[in-house]
Amino acid sequence: MRDTPRSRLLLATALIAALSLIAIDYANGSSPIIGSARRAVGSALGAAERGISAATRPVRTFLGAGLTEAGHGGQVAALERQLAILRAQLSAAQVASQRSRQLSSLLRLASAGTYRVRPAAVIAFGQGYQQTVTLDVGSAQGVRPQQTVIDGDGLVGQVIAVTGQTCTVLLASAPSSVVGVRLAPSGEVGWVTGLGAGRPGLLTLQVLDPTAKLTVGEQLVTSASVADRPFVPGVPVGVIASLRNRAASLTSVALVRPYARLTALDVVAVVVGPPRHNPGFSALPRTAGSSGGVTAGQRPTQPLGKPGRGVGQHQAGRP
User: Can the peptide bond before residue 230 be classed as cis, meaning omega within 30 degrees of 0?
Assistant: First the structure.
């Protein structure tokens, strides 16, 4: 509305009328005329108010729901963050617990074989034909090439390269890996080689004596290398899983399932100090009725052999 003399006159008239009605109502609140006028005005204004309320209800409902949802959304986001933190903490606790168990097994094996070890963690797996892993220990921790690597179950492989803080390990399952072994309890000597990435869970065993009788379930340990490098004696290697046709071979042949899970390594150790005496079969895991196996702590039924008997550099035959 424009500010004109006429509009001002109308506003003044309405104001005077309103004040007059208030004064009359105050003077005689029971006046039927005033009461009727007030009820009429109240009805009209009430109807207008109800109409406005009905028209604006969807807007108020929408805005109220939006504000409530926004508040709930903030709570949900906070709860999701807390849940993510709790899951991360649980995962870290599970990893720590698993590594603690692996380290305990590793220390038990080292104690049984009287090996001095340097615990390490696998930080990388090699790619390609050659099967290798990288550990987080190196020359600064006393690691040298041609040292034995074990985990809590048995033989892992040998160190082939070293830097200041890391080293590279050739796994026993690699095709180029050759490990001198001795069978328990017969004392027969031979060697195992890897089958590569195609069959990482098996090794091939050949023994020197072509007439040797191999039995499924027989256990194998490492035989001493010259100066205990690359393999110290007595480390559990695996168990014979099956026999192969020997018609085309001059030696007895079998497939061996390694004790160590070479495709799922985590906590391992480098043997930095060999045992003073050959531990024989004392580090082997206990068997439950396996044919040809021995119980941990038993001595072999045949002597381990005289020094010098063996296969290449891996079979020096410690007394």
Answer: yes
Angstrom distance (rounded) from CA 87 to CA 93: 10
Q: How far apart are CA 179 and CA 250, in angstroms?
A: 19
Average pLDDT of span 145-159: 97
Please report, rounded to a whole number, the percentage of residues in the chain having pLDDT higher than 70: 63
pLDDT of the residue at 252: 75
Cα separation, 7 vs 24, in Å, equals 26
Q: The domain spanning residue 191 has which CATH number? A: 2.40.10.340
Asked if 316 and 308 touch (Cβ cutoff 8 Å), the reply is: yes
* Whether residue 139 sits in one domain with residue 47: no
Whether residues 215 and 75 share a domain: the answer is no
What the block records as the tokens of 139 is 């020359």
Question: Whats the size of the chain, residue-wise?
Answer: 319
Note whether residue 208 is domain-resident. yes
The answer on 214 and 101 residing in a single domain is no
* Tokens (6 digits) for 290: 């396996």
* Bond from prior residue into 300 cis (ω within 30 degrees of 0): no
Find all residues with CB under 8 Å of 280, minimum gap 6, and list them. 221, 233, 234, 299, 300, 304
Residues 109 and 154 both lie in one domain: no
Residue 180 near residue 309 (C-beta atoms within 8 A): no
pLDDT 10s digits, 53-107 = 665 565 556 555 555 555 566 777 887 777 787 777 776 776 677 778 888 899 9
Show the domain range for 79. 31-113
Separation between Cα atoms, residue 199 and residue 196, nearest integer Å = 6
Backbone CA torsion sign across 224, 174, 162, 136: negative
pLDDT for res 86? 76
Tokens of 314: 């891996």
Q: Is residue 8 part of a domain?
A: no
| CA atoms of 159 and 142, how far apart (whole Å) | 12
